[in-house]
Amino acid sequence: MAPENDGIAPTALRSVLVTGASTFLGGYLVARLAANPDIERVVAVDSRVPSKDLMRRMGRAEFLRLDIRRPAVARAIARYEVDTVVHNAPSIMDSVEHSAAIKELNVVGSMQMCAACQRSPSVKRLILRSTSMVYGASGADPALFAEGTPARREPKRGYGRDLIDVEGYVRGLSRRRQDIDVTILRYQSMLGPRIKTRVGSYLSMPLVPTALGYSPRLQFLHEEDALAALEHATLVRRPGTFNIAADGVVSLAQAVNRAGHIRLPVAASLVQPIIGVLRDGSLPAMRAGHEGYLTYGRVLDNTRMRTEFEFEPKYTSLETLDDFIARGRTSPVISAAAWRGFETRAAIAATALQ
């Protein structure tokens, strides 16, 4: 028999506050929660106003334009007697480069949010959307990163460093307020036809610089699975830290080939500078936190996601990639038919040589 508190418990979700409401994950999560009649109140928070379409989708949710770095967030939590906070605000996938301003938003904003939750007697749950970048990426990495695996080369800067600090503040909150359940979701690289991420922009380049002599192993998470996991964490009480990633691994070479693009192998130290030269205004730089990733890749163990968090992605890594290619904004330089023809000829030649 399942524990009494397991499963969806509508009465426990009287008032939910979601930060980062102008982003894809935050805005669409608000829309889903607002459509759930078992949730009394949904409060959407962001310093930026969501698009008209996203605002329309939010329905009955109340939008507050405020900066989470300011004391106003504590007043909002008190005013709406928030019991569940979904902290989706840390920036890890926007089309802007990491900067001191972004670091302040991520770190100081999260400090302010944790302080507001600590002071509020109504808050009982906090869900943080984190990132797999906290594990770093190096040649000494294990084949799979489990939630308790320490980073072999901990990020010193960039988004990975920000989220290491943010996770520390959130765990500190759980120690100070042991009545608050904390759930940390470490998302793998996200891809999808609607969400804009650095990895998606990188794979959309017609000419893709890659590290010569390396074949990084990649793992993806579909945008719909990313959204569903965040909704699942909100509706179902599952405290703890969980990797959120799809099954399967795709090599960078395979990803570029399936997209119909052309690899440009260069020395590993030149990948970042050449991306900077080739990218246009629509492509964010793959700099801080991505150097090792484009050389060594990063793969997560998603066992606890299934057994303890009880979430099952609908898409594998390969299916996520294919959907991104089929419905996204990328255009092939070499058609899929041409690649299939090349692979067939290569297979025939390999057989003949045996």
TrEMBL record:
What does the record give as EC number? 5.1.3.2
Q: Which GO terms describe its molecular function?
A: UDP-glucose 4-epimerase activity
Name its species: Gordonia humi
Protein name, please? Answer: UDP-glucose 4-epimerase
Highest taxon, organism lineage: Bacteria
* PANTHER family linked: BIFUNCTIONAL POLYMYXIN RESISTANCE PROTEIN ARNA, NAD-DEPENDENT EPIMERASE_DEHYDRATASE
The answer to whether keyword Isomerase applies is yes
Every copy of the NAD-dependent epimerase/dehydratase domain together lies at 16-203
Keywords, comma-separated and alphabetical: Isomerase
